[in-house]
Amino acid sequence: MKTRIASVDEVRENFARQGYICNDDIAMAVFLAAQLRKPVLVEGPPGVGKTELAKASAAFLEAPLIRLQCYEGLDETRALYEWKYSKQLLYTQLLKEKLGDVLGDAQTLTDSMQRLAGFGDAFYSEDFLEPRPLLQALRSDEAPVLLIDEIDKADQEFEAFLLELLSDYQISIPELGTITARNEPLVFLTSNNTRELSDALKRRCLHLYIPFPDIRLEQQIIAARVPDVAAGLREQLATFVSRLRAMDLKKHPAVSETLDWARALVLLHAQSLTPELVEATLRLLLKYEEDLVTARADMSRLLKP
Prior knowledge:
With about 300 residues, this protein is an alpha/beta fold. The protein has 17 helices and 9 strands. It has helices at about 10-20, 25-35, 50-60, 75-80, 85-95, 100-105, 110-125, 135-140, 155-160, 165-170, 200-205, 215-225, 230-245, 255-265, 275-280, 290-295, 300, and strands at about 40-45, 65-70, 80-85, 130, 145-150, 170-175, 175-180, 185-190, 205-210. The protein is elongated.
């Protein structure tokens, strides 16, 4: 991992070279997180670039990216580790076959138990451990970027389980004890604000909120990601999407959907937005029929110069 970041400007400029256009708040959060070795809790509506921020940071820091996608019911056995049960079963069969050799000339039950004790420990050794993303991050030979994506989808119990990792970069496994990070990862947690996160988790993290971009910033994003869009059309796109987001819709268009729309307009050789063109392609931006109806009813205002 890149261990020295000269300035906030270096973060912003490197991200821009990757096509990730960020504001000062984002660049500052990444700079401080890398220097202070603090996790970053990134909140904001879906589709504003929270996950892409972790990916851009991994590229900037020249570090491997390890991702844990959260969902309801996620627990430590899926996030941290699980045992290789088939190998454990095979080991049990082999132990049964060698039981006579193991016990040998043991005269008492105590002697037999002592001889078997070492094999019991081997049953729960790292030879039978299957690491999942959290354990992979702790055992990585180089400091990784760990992305815990959509933490708000996980249960509160799992959120509490993460506190040890976020504060001390270590995890306790009952059969093996405490495992401390070989190299402290840079951790990003993302949330779409579907539920309130605990104060304990927030205290351990730097906080970053990413809103939808304003018109100027969205034009820069389009220019970086879809450079074939002409400047005039780029301004029309950003203005149209900004007006859509100000409406009472079930789902506002994400930045990724703006970019999909821009790419489609390039394929259609569009030079400007017309009612017919917008009508034909609006489903790239809006995913619910009631939102489409609402937008069509207000099309003249949305397209107003």
